[in-house]
Amino acid sequence: MDIEKVEKVHSIGYRLKDAKFTVNQDFKFNVEGVKAEGTQGEVNNVPQWVGKVLAENNLGTLDSPDMITELKQALSKEKMVGEYQISTLDPHFYIKLKESMKELDRDDYDRVESMMLELFRMRRGKLVKLADSIKLTSDLYNKITVEENIFYKTIYDNSKEFENKIRGDVDE
After folding, report:
1. Do the Cβ atoms of 50 and 34 come closer than 8 Å?
2. Which residues face 19 on adjacent strands?
3. Which of 89, 96, 92 is nearest to 123 (CA)?
4. What's the domain of life for this entry (predicted)?
5. How far apart are CA 158 and CA 153, in angstroms?
6. Domain boundaries, the chain
7. What string of pLDDT tens digits covers the 172 residues of the chain?
8. Which of 26, 36, 62, 168 could be joined to 55 by an S-S link, Cβ 3.0–4.6 Å?
9. d(CA 54, CA 88)
10. What's the CATH code, domain 67-167?
């Protein structure tokens, strides 16, 4: 499996999920069958991508998660659980984080990227150790992101293949 392809599919799926949108000024439109309307002051559930377009046109504000705070919390939890455990991340954590990082200025981007890479390296090391020893369990699957899932399966499969090559054909 290709991480980029899976990430792209999940990114599209994430942008289709509903998000809260607070209307700043009345609007009404119908584009290719996508209808949306809002009255000033109301809060609507709209797909992420629609909310982003509306927000870019100053029609309201999109309620999006504070991914920098979530990143700090994830990093803290990862350090707390220790070397042989992995903390739970939302399956779309990195997708949401990268999306929110696009809005940052250069200094903030660099600082957030540094924290993201620290978290990534920590989790990567743990995943390599786990994938080398056990098959992906449902408990572990529920703790990792879509990208980490593919990484895990790749390491596990390569490790098993390598082990089989070293052991040789035991059926001779």
Report:
1. yes
2. 46
3. 89
4. Archaea
5. 8
6. 3-62, 67-167
7. 677 887 888 888 878 888 888 999 888 888 888 777 888 888 888 888 888 888 888 888 888 778 899 999 999 999 999 888 999 999 999 998 998 898 899 999 999 999 999 999 999 999 999 998 889 999 999 999 999 999 999 999 999 999 889 988 655 5
8. 62
9. 32
10. 1.20.58
Closest listed residue to residue 74, CA positions, set 92, 54, 89 = 89
Q: What is the pLDDT of residue 17?
A: 83
Residue 72 burial (CB count, 10 A): 14
Verdict on whether the full-model pTM lies above 0.85: no
Q: Which residues pair with 160 in a beta bridge?
A: none
Tokens 């999109």 map to which residue?
62
Instruction: State the Cα–Cα distance between residues 92 and 9, nearest whole angstrom.
Output: 11
H or E, element range at 108: helix 106-131
Phi, psi dihedrals of residue 35, rounded to the nearest 5°: -105, 140
